[in-house]
Structures are given as C-alpha cells and as structure tokens.
Write a structure and sequence with these properties.
It is a single chain. This protein has a four-stranded mixed β-sheet with strand order 1-10-3-6, with no helix packed on it. A four-stranded antiparallel β-sheet has the order 5-4-7-8, with no helix packed on it. It is built from five helices and 14 strands. Mean pLDDT is about 80; it is low at about 10-25 and about 95-105. Helix 1 runs antiparallel to helix 2 (about 65-100). The protein is of the alpha+beta class. A hairpin with a 4-residue loop joins strand 7 (about 160-165) and strand 8 (about 170-180).
Length: about 300
Amino acid sequence: MEVVEITQGQSSDPAKYWKNRSWKIEIIAFKALLIPCLITAVIKPITDFMAACICIITGRGCNISILFSLLVKTSYRLMTRTTFLLLLYCNMVTVQAWSQKPAADSLPQMATVNVSVTSMKGQARKGEVIIFRGEKTGRMINGISDAAGKIKQLLPPGDTYNVSVKSISDTTRYAILTVPTLEKDEYFSEDFWVKIKFDPAKSYRLDNVHFDTDKASLRPDSYTELSELLDYLQRHEEIKVEIAGHTDNVGTDAHNLKLSQDRAGAIVRYLTSKGIKVNRLTAKGYGATQPAADNAAEEGRQMNRRTEVRIL
C-alpha cells in the first residue's frame, strides 16, 4: 500500500513580506544605535547629578540650591534626550517602510516543496528519486532523498505536477501537486509538503535487456536499462540483489540452465566493471524451471526469455 499526503502552499501579497523584512532591519539598526545614545542621553546627566551629591556630602563647595538647579537640569536633559531617541526611532521606521519598495525580481517566485519519503513503517528511505513532471510544460524535475528521507525542491508556478517515484526499470505515479499561478507582485508565503510512504517491490523485470540468440552477449540496446540498474544500486548502497536469468523450454535443460547462468553472469560483470562491489551481486540461472507464461506459443516463450532483479 502507498500513502501520499499533499499540503498546498499559499501565495500572499508582497507587503507582508517586505514588512517582516523591514522590521528585522529596523530592530537591528536601533539596537546598534541604542547603546551609544543611551550613554550620552541618560547616563551622563545622572552621573553629573551624583557627582554634585557627593560634593555636598563631602563639603566641597556645593549647596542645596546648586543641587536643586542641577536636578532640574538633569530631569530636563533626560526628558528631552529620551524624546529625541523616540523620535529617531519613529523616523527610522517611517523611512525604512517607505524606502523598501518591493522589486518583482526580489520576491520568491518559485514554490518550495518539502518531500518526506518513508517506508510504510515510517522509516526514512534514502536514495529515492522523486520526479515532478509538469502536465502543461512536460518538464521533469528530479530530487533524491537524503539520509533522513527528505528533499527540498523548487518548482515553477502555474503548472500541475505528477509526482512519481522511480524504481529500477520504471516509475510509479503517486499523486498530483498543483502549484497555482502567481498574480502580479504575489509570492509564496508557505511551503508545499508532500509525504510519501511506500515499500518497494522485491522483484523487477528488465524488459529492455536483450542478448544475442542462444548467446550470453549483451545487445547494444540493453545498456540504457542496465545504466538505470547501476544508478539504483549506487543510490542504495545497503542492498544486495540477485540477477536471475530465465529461458524458454527450447533445447535441453542442461543447455538452458547454463545459458541462463551465463547471461546473469554477463550482467554481474557489467555492474562490477562500473564499481559495484561483487559481494552485493549474485548471478543465478534458472533455465526453463520458472516459466512466466505458457511455452506452447511463441508469445509465451518470448515472455519466458527474461532477466529479473530480485532484492535480497
């Protein structure tokens, strides 16, 4: 069973985007100006007043009238300079809000899609290729899940995407994701989320791997699908596979068994020549012992002449 959960993102007016950015800039700038202004506007008058008090206590020439006059001046300075700081901040907010005019090319125009890929039991699946194919444009955009089973992908707006998971020899479509068209000066304020749960098949048939008649030599058209198998094994370094060769019932059992074994071995040799460790691969020939169709007709015999990949 496969389970897919789609959460659509949302578009928004750019004013909120730029307002949030402006406030962050304003707060940082205000904090940078606050400390020196606080020292000059608040602490300096207070220290002067304290110095006068010390003079009176120690009898160094100051009297109560001078102290009262200094207290009035200190209060006045505190009030005026604090008002100045507030006016400075208000002016900065106003200037920042009017000067930060949004440019169309500065807004986030692409949709951010967060993909989570797990097994049916919730375990993260690493190395899975998720394909987004636009129905309108036909464009295919791929992402590969990391060790946590996560992918962060950017998709152009204004299209409907078929979401598929790539296996060894084919792809399976799981869901449809619609990314709406953005209006003028709009942007995506929220991400899209795609959660995929699936367990891969344990056996795959390599329909496009062909051999010369009654031989174990690969035909040139086989390497496209073998390259896909190679890519799958490179992305899933933890798995081991069996390459299973099968034949029809034409010829002796001994001949068919050897032929199927030799053909499976040819594929293993190709994979090891590309860097896959030999301990991850097993070549097994079954001859005509496991038919997939009736050998009485040519169509059935053709189906029985096949190569399979079995996940161990």
